[in-house]
Amino acid sequence: xxxxxxxxxxxxxxxxxxxxxxxxxxxxxxxxxxxxxxxxxxxxxxxxxxxxxxxxxxxxxxxxxxxxxxxxxxxxxxxxxxxxxxxxxxxxxxxxxxxxxxxxxxxxxxxxxxxxxxxxxxxxxxxxxxxxxxxxxxxxxxxxxxxxxxxxxxxxxxxxxxxxxxxxxxxxxxxxxxxxxxxxxxxxxxxxxxxxxxxxxxxxxxxxxxxxxxxxxxxxxxxxxxxxxxxxxxxxxxxxxxxxxxxxxxxxxxxxxxxxxxxxxxxxxxxxxxxxxxxxxxxxxxxxxxxxxxxxxxxxxxxxxxxxxxxxxxxxxxxxxxxxxxxxxxxxxxxxxxxxxxxxxxxxxxxxxxxxxxxxxxxxxxxxxxxxxxxxx
Length: 377
Known about the structure:
- By secondary structure, this protein is an alpha+beta fold.
- Helix content is 32%, strand content 22%.
- The strands form four sheets. The protein has a six-stranded mixed β-sheet, sandwiched between helices.
- α5 (197-215) runs antiparallel to α7 (268-276).
- The chain starts with a helix and ends with a helix.
């Protein structure tokens, strides 16, 4: 199958984050097995979602991981020109949800499999496809935890997020949480008899603003924009009507941390402010919803040098978005970002990738795997 034919199949699966993904994992597994490659479907704790892992070459030798996620963000925007889960071609552009982020990379990898099988690499190439990346990299930790039983420790991992096929060395880490404050409702004419949850949340918001302001003083890392860690509240919900004391308020908050800084630790002052409300009669909850570490790969790492040589592009120091790469690095595997498409097209109506970008990705991956297979483990 051509990369475009494979992409057409992948796009038709509405593998939206947080939803069951049996259909897409089964199709990929059947495709690989038709080429003589054993695919392992690794069920996650949710029970209706799974990662997928396959190896081409000897399992007992340190190999290369080609990593991507199978899930996509929802496609409910009315601005879509056509069905987002049906690949549509206009000139060189191929439209559909996930074309750039990141089923284009998966299609390129899968299209390369017959070549890799024929190559019979002395160092293995592993395919590691995950679920629920768009919810804060929830699926891939379960896959990484099972790697010791699946293969020898990998030497490197390429995470195929859209980068214009430019290698990327670093991104910030992230931690996010959902906060709820429960007070006591009542008539707004008697605020003394209620507990206003929105007013209470104001103290939490103030704590978040103070913590965010302190971060601007450092530590600093000039490869990032901005060069400091950040905290922001992205959503807030509360209240029923103006004349009712609001008894419930919720926010979602995130921290993004430069390398060597724990994103979870950045949220501790906010968490303490939430806990302090209990002494005033409020019930509170703090629910973590996402966490992954920063990526920071030295430019001299072997996989960085090899990808730079093959792509003809020096590695970019850093990007602002997060990926699964930091989790691979935390597991002791050199990880780098490099994939087709453009992150600026992701999560938008009429997302697309070009035929030229797909072809270039297949070519780069073929050269990468061929060169890697010739290196001494």
